[in-house]
């Protein structure tokens, strides 16, 4: 038990004053690192800004840095685009299976990829994940955030509300040919 107490003490020392999350406007989020050690953030906004594949990178935020980590408008546009693409791809697949002719033929891979987009994929756009002191992912020895000593997942309420609206606005009618 003494070892556990010591490890907990080390974690707390490394976290220090932690981070400050600021909500600006209707839903943009800025992160300020108050710790003496870097924090690591998974952010679709930062992925886009860095030209990385969404969800591919973990971004290192240095002590005293203040950086925008979430943009509500961009997230809303991205979820609308992905939801529309997924719906069209599913309609095209259903029409192809039903043997409907006259379909606009797209690249099969992009259709399959878009059809594979689910609600959980869209929900991930509304989440920030951050780890104190240790990074994870393809650039680090730890593959999962769950392997880091201390981490937090922030679910962004306004973004989740917008996702709910996007999903409710989608038509639910059966498969049909895409014009």
TrEMBL record:
Gene3D superfamilies: 2.60.200.10
Cellular component annotations (GO), alphabetically ordered: heteromeric SMAD protein complex
Pfam families named among the record's database cross-references: MH2
Matching InterPro entries: Dwarfin, SMAD-like_dom_sf, SMAD_dom_Dwarfin-type, SMAD_FHA_dom_sf
Residue ranges occupied by any MH2 domain in the UniProt entry: 1-179
GO terms under biological process: anatomical structure morphogenesis; BMP signaling pathway; cell differentiation; post-embryonic development; regulation of developmental process; regulation of multicellular organismal process; SMAD protein signal transduction
Keywords: Transcription, Transcription regulation
The protein's name in its UniProt record: Mothers against decapentaplegic homolog 4
Keyword Phosphoprotein: no
UniProt GO molecular function: DNA-binding transcription factor activity, RNA polymerase II-specific; I-SMAD binding; RNA polymerase II cis-regulatory region sequence-specific DNA binding
């Amino acid at each position: 038990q003494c070892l556990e107490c010591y490890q907990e003490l080390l974690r707390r020392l490394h976290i220090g004053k932690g981070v400050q999350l600021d909500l600006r406007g209707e839903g943009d989020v800025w992160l300020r690192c108050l710790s003496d050690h870097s924090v690591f953030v998974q952010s679709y906004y930062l992925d886009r800004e860095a030209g990385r594949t969404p969800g591919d990178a973990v971004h290192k935020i240095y002590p005293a840095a203040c950086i925008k980590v979430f943009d509500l408008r961009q997230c809303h546009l991205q979820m609308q685009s992905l939801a529309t693409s997924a719906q069209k791809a599913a309609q095209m697949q259903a029409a192809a299976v039903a043997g409907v002719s006259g379909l606009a033929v797209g690249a099969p891979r992009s259709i399959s990829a878009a059809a594979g987009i689910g609600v959980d994929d869209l929900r991930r756009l509304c989440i920030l994940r951050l780890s104190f002191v240790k990074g994870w992912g393809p650039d680090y020895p730890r593959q999962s955030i769950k392997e880091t000593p201390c981490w937090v997942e922030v679910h962004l309420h306004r973004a989740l509300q917008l996702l709910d609206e996007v999903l409710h606005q989608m038509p639910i009618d059966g498969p049909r040919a895409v014009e």
